[in-house]
Design brief:
325 residues, alpha/beta, Rossmann fold, two-stranded antiparallel ribbon, 11 strands, globular
Length: 325
Amino acid sequence: MPTTVFFASNRILTGDSKLATSYGPNIQPPSISTGITYGAAFVDGVDIVSNNAGAIASIENTNTGAFSPSVQGDLADAGRNLLIFIHGFDNTFEDGITRAAFNREFLAASGQPSTDTTVIAFSWPSLGQIVSFPVLDADYRHDQFMATQSGLHLMTFFANLEPLLRAARANGNRTYLLAHSMGNLALQSAVESWFLHGNGNAALFDVSILAAADCSFDVFGLPNLAGLSALPLLSQRISIYYSANDQVLNLSLILNGLQRLGHDGPKNRTDQAAFPASTYRMFDASNITDYDRGFLTSHQYYRLSASVRSQIAADIAPQASPLVA
């Protein structure tokens, strides 16, 4: 049975909105939030055992500016908890959608309470290709710029989603955010935009999972609601997954000249005043070896490692225990 992934994307369409290949690597102008495409993709072939994310079989219910009324009704009363996923660097549109489907399935298969979700993906215009250095540097810079520029669109997506999340919560469901890699940079930009545009505190997410985050490690310590310092105003709990053996982030450190959040967690992470256990949880995946760890896969441990997948499932459960740093 196909996995349904509801989605929003600020990629400029180059053809029929029902074709995955039409969602290219160029971005809608930031001022045109109504240009965001919303829809539902159906993914075949997801296999947790073989780590196969499947392929998009079809795309339906596409609409510009908001989800179609029928989809809005489905999301507000989905009968499941809601999982919002933001993909990272080097993802085509199809990559981001199929990984959202895979994330939904591994959580549902965990057996943990409240982990059978309806998934909603936001696909920003990553280039979706790596060749070799120095081409890697050019591709990386492209994606870094696109992630940052996607902040206003992602904020708009959150604003459109807010009443649906509120309705879902009123129906007894929970809401989760999972951001991977450079998707955390897009999230950072969106959180900043949220408050810069006069939006106030909002109970958007019960739990936010920040996995292998490719943004600065001091992002929670910035003043005046900058960076991710205001994320606790939008999310009840925040869990940060990091690994010193993430080879992609080790290269990112060199390219940026600054340690990444997903390398050793946030700056001063052991400071309980700055990161109280009631809000923040940390997980060090540096010594996780239950997957084929190479250059690119070392950055994908959150979905390739069975033990990390189990930890994420336990983490979003209503009575989750604190993570061990």
